[in-house]
Structures are given as structure tokens and as C-alpha cells.
Amino acid sequence: MAGAQRRRDRRLCLAALGLLIVFVVSCWRSLGRAFSFGDGSKTSARGATATLARRDVVATASGAALARRARNFGCALTAVSENFNYGEADYWDQRYEEDGRESSYDWLGDYEKFRPHIEAAAARIGGGRAVSVLDLGCGNARLAEDMHDDGYTNVTGVDISEVAISMMRERNAETRPGIKWVVGNAFELDFPDSSFDIVIDKSTMDALSCEAGKTNQNMVKLTGEVSRVLRTGGAYLVFSATNMGEASLHLPHLMFDVKHEDIPMPFSQLTVSTAVKQPGADARLLFGGKEKALEAAEHFDRQLAEGRRQREEAEKRLKETAPA
Question: How far is CA 116 from CA 121, 158, 235, in A?
């Protein structure tokens, strides 16, 4: 009897060891992706920092200087002005007050442009128009309203601006009472774990990447929080005017199955990233994945800031010594 018990214990230990090995290999592969660059080669954190510090490819989207060629842990916004306060509630409150209570603005386009991608995600989940949807950073856009009018019955809009949410509640109190409007910070959402089937991010990721010196940290916080409130098998839809979704959805604290698609637009780019949450994603976050990713992101942000400072000093010295 004792021998049989020992054999059972040994089998259990071997099974646990096997699971641990699978988890470690998965984390290692994710880290490899995180430090993988366009030529397919992988580098150490120090080498990656040096490479990222040399990147200076910036594009303009929605009036903000955004990184067009972002990379994991290196969405370097090398020309972002300190005046961009897209992560601050006061900035948005003032903007929505100035625009007026009846105004609306749909970043990147209206519902019809993104409808096929939303419908595809809902169909894959199998809930039809009864799926629970979070419009992350809804502002005063008509996306949630148009989805409601198209038959979606469980839509929540969240935004950091109390002014915007107040406007949306007032605007829809009689005609669309079923939509829930919530004031909230995308880094600390006030929803339970696994609350939504679909999270829609229409340029919210772009906006939050604009904070100089905290780009990578913001991406880790945002994607980690979305993963937390998304159900396993649910979809995070990122509609972006940059490559930020391509860069950020493969970070090592996440477990998404990701597909990227470009939508042709004249004189600009629009990328749709569909990230499906995989089994085991919650455990990765729970066991310190987000904290480790955030530590690495802080390291890269510091290195990028130092690289910018050195370039600025070199340019200043060059101008001072250049002949008149």
C-alpha cells in the first residue's frame, strides 16, 4: 500500500514538473518575441535598448506625434511634446467642455468602418449581439450608440473624463437607457475579472502612448488591465493609427493569439489587431508577469529618455561649434 502511494505521489510530482516546464518555456518564448526586432534577430535587453535608442521614426496621427514603427518595449516617441497630456482627465474635461455637450468625434472613423471586425469577433465568441462589450476610452464618440442601435444589448462605455461621461449619460438617458456609462482609468478599471467578451480600443492605445518617458510602462499597464477584465476566449480589438497594437500585444505578461490586418486609407495607415485571450493568461498575470514586464518597461523608458537627452546635447554642441 505504501509503495503504491509513493508511486502515485511520484507521478503527481512528475506531472507538476511537466506543467512547470511548459509554463517556463512559454514565458521564455514570449520574452524572445518581446526582444525580437524587424530583421528577425533577438538581442539582449542591453542590446535592445541600444537599438531602440537609435529609433527616431515618428508619424503624425490624429494631431499627435506618434511612433509609426513601434517595437515591443520600445514604442519610442522620440519627438513627443510635453504638452500632450492624453492620459490626464483634466485635458479631456477641458477639451469636451470646449467642444460642447452636443458634439461628438469618432477617432479613426465611424462604426461602419469597424463593424465587420466587431461582428467577426462576436460571431467567433458565439454570443451574437448579446456579447458583453467594453468601449475603452469612449469619449463622446458614437460607437457605443451605433452598436446599441445595431442590436448589441450589453454595451459599456468607459472614459477618464467625467465631463464626457456626463454628456453621454445625458445624451442617451431616454433613447438608449441600456448603455452603461462609467468614469474610469484604463490603467485601473473598476470591473471584476473576466467581465467582458469584447474590449474595443479605438485609438486609446495610441493616445496613451503619447506620454513622454512612460510609453512602454503605459502599454504594459493598459494591456495587462484589459487582459484582466477580458474573459478567456474573448477578443481585444485594437484599432490603431500606428503600429502600437502590433508592438504591445505580444509583451511577455500577456497570452493573446494575435492577428493584425491593415485597412487601406489614403495618406495614412490603420491597423486592426484582434487579440484573443488564451487559457492560462490569468495565471501569468497573477504570478508576477505584469510586475516583471513593468520593471523591464521602466528600464527601457529610462534608456530611451537618456538616449534622447544625449542626442539633444550633441545637437546643441554641434550648433554651437558650427561656423556662422
Answer: 9, 22, 14
Q: Are 126 and 148 in contact (CB under 8 A)?
A: no
Mean pLDDT of 252-278: 90
Please give the model's pTM, rounded to 2 decimal places: 0.72
Measured CA to CA, the distance from residue 34 to residue 90 in angstroms comes to 33
Q: For residue 304, what is the enclosing H or E element? A: helix 290-321
Asked whether the beta carbons of 73 and 296 are under 8 A apart, the reply is yes
Helices 215-229, 290-321: axis angle to 10 degrees equals 160
Asked if the model's pLDDT at residue 223 lies above 70, the reply is: yes
Taking the C-alpha atoms of residue 59 and residue 63, their distance in angstroms, rounded to an integer, is: 10
Residues in the chain: 324
Residue 183, sorted as left (phi over 0), alpha (psi -120 to 50) or beta, turns out to be: beta
Query: Cα(291)–Cα(286) distance, rounded to whole angstroms?
Result: 10
CA dist list (Å): 85 to 80, 187, 223, 237, 256: 10, 15, 20, 24, 29
Residues 80/61, Cβ–Cβ less than 8 Å: no
Torsion on CA atoms 69, 74, 80, 84, rounded to nearest 10: 110
Query: What is the DSSP code (8-state) at residue 151?
Result: T
- If we measure between CA atoms, which residue out of 130, 174, 181 comes closest to residue 154? 130
Task: Concatenate the DSSP letters of all residues of 212-233 into one string.
Answer: TT-HHHHHHHHHHHHHHHEEEE
Cβ atoms < 10 Å from Cβ of 47: 13
Contact criterion met (CB below 8 Å) for 67 and 242? yes
Contact 277, 197 (CB under 8 A): no
Radius of gyration of the chain (CA): 22
- Edge-to-edge strands, sheet with 256-262: 180-183, 154-159, 132-136, 196-202, 230-240, 271-277, 256-262
Q: Tell me: the pLDDT tens digits for 276-299?
A: 999 999 999 888 788 888 888 888
